[in-house]
TrEMBL record:
Cofactor or coenzyme needed: Zn(2+)
Protein's UniProt name: 2-deoxy-scyllo-inosamine dehydrogenase
Domain Alanine dehydrogenase/pyridine nucleotide transhydrogenase NAD(H)-binding: 155-236
Transmembrane segment boundaries: none
Length: 358
């Protein structure tokens, strides 16, 4: 039996309130089908704030997302899991709801060997902690653009023009990958802070980042083969902006949040279903034929492709540069409550660094 503590620190999210505290280590949870991960780094995602606000539909087959981005080490591996103590891993939250929050010193994942093989993904970068980045959000982008190519039957985005609404973490990673696939990219962001972050970090060049405004939408009317909506919520207004910017025959790609019943244009394409079931549908709108598609989640293969891209093309994928701030686990509850309440907002990715092992 590995040396596991008598107590560990974890967070709880109850009735919209986040707390951190110590609780007894559940020795009885260490079954044959259990992997326990000790995270070194955890990432804060917009979905965490949404779950605090109750503004996100939780999928029963996957469970809540609160605390799902992490890189850590296997601290315990049950005999039927296929993992070993010391494995460097990350989590795919799209596979099993049988897991505890990632905002903790230890994370417990229980399932069959087959499902654990999808849910716990080995990290092939032994030095990732020296230039930390979060594999899960990138795997979702790899998956999403793969879906886009599949839907449009294109081998790459060579020569295509891609507009991206939102220069959050998702928008910036879309820009990196679409550029790598041969597209020219234009990213539109409402606030100046994220535009400045993208420029200052060298992720986007001057001619690749614009304000997200009616004037810019008009100036870029009918311009893009693909417009990706990567904002916190894919509101009808933002989808309309995307439709203005799309060329005739272009694709509106819905990545930002949608909820059951959302449609665009009003009462026509069911954008929530298109996104969650990763389908494509044609509509006529603004005198153009538009194809509306979306993507949701990712698989182990997407993580593996993400690691390959990062290792083979480090200049195209400066994922480490997305980190804007590092905090400790004790600082997390007030910070995430402020982010959820809209009192704090940080461009890029805020990471939580676990306390050093004693
Ligand atoms: N489909 C999937 O598989 C999948 C996976 C992961 C995430 N997501 C979605 O992607 C979304 C974005 O994630 P992220 O990590 O990039 O979040 P993020 O880093 O917090 O960025 C949020 C972005 O949304 C913009 N925004 C928010 N409200 C807006 C509004 N009313 N009008 C215009 N822009 C607005 C922000 O612009 P400002 O700078 O102006 O505030 C910012 O660019 C998440 O909320 C989630 O729904 C989808």
């Amino acid at each position: 039996m590995p040396s596991l503590p008598a107590a560990y620190v974890t967070t709880t999210l109850l009735d919209g309130v986040v707390n951190v505290g110590a609780r007894p280590f559940p020795q009885d949870a260490l079954g044959d089908d259990t992997v326990v991960i000790r995270p070194d780094y955890m990432g804060i995602c917009r979905a965490d704030a949404k779950e605090i606000l109750g503004s996100r539909d939780v999928m029963e087959d996957r469970g809540p997302l609160f605390g799902h981005e992490l890189v850590g080490t296997v601290a315990f591996a049950g005999s039927r899991t296929g993992f070993a103590e010391g494995d460097l891993v990350t989590l795919n939250p799209n596979i099993t709801p049988s897991r505890t929050t990632g905002f903790a010193e230890y994370v417990f994942v229980h399932d069959t060997r087959e499902r654990l093989d999808q849910a716990v993904v080995r990290v092939p970068e032994p030095h990732i902690r020296d230039g930390i980045w979060m594999p899960e959000p990138f795997a979702c982008i790899v998956h999403a653009l793969g879906k886009l190519l599949e839907h449009t039957r294109l081998p790459s985005l060579q020569g295509k023009s891609v507009g991206i609404l939102g220069a959050g973490c998702a928008g910036l990673m879309f820009a990196m990958y679409a550029r790598h696939l041969g597209a020219s990219v234009s990213v539109f962001n409402r606030g100046e802070a994220r535009r400045a972050f993208a420029r200052d970090q060298g992720i986007l060049a001057e001619g690749e980042i614009f304000a997200l405004s009616d004037a810019e939408a008009e100036a870029h009317r009918d311009r893009y083969d693909v417009v990706i909506v990567a904002t916190t919520v894919a509101t009808a207004q933002l989808l309309e902006t995307a439709a203005v910017m799309a060329a005739d025959g272009g694709v509106l790609f819905v990545y930002g949040g949608t909820r059951k019943g959302d449609s665009f244009p009003a009462g026509r394409a069911d954008v929530d279903t298109l996104r969650r079931q990763e389908r494509i549908e044609s509509v006529r709108h603004l005198g153009k034929r538009l194809r509306i598609a979306g993507a949701y989640g990712c698989f182990r293969e997407d993580y593996e492709e993400g690691f390959r891209l990062h290792a083979d093309h480090p200049r195209a994928f400066p994922l480490e540069k997305l980190t804007s701030r590092r905090i400790g686990l004790d600082d997390f509850p007030p910070l995430i409550m402020d982010i959820a309440a809209g009192k704090e907002d940080f461009p890029g990715k805020v990471l939580i660094k676990a306390a050093a092992q004693g």
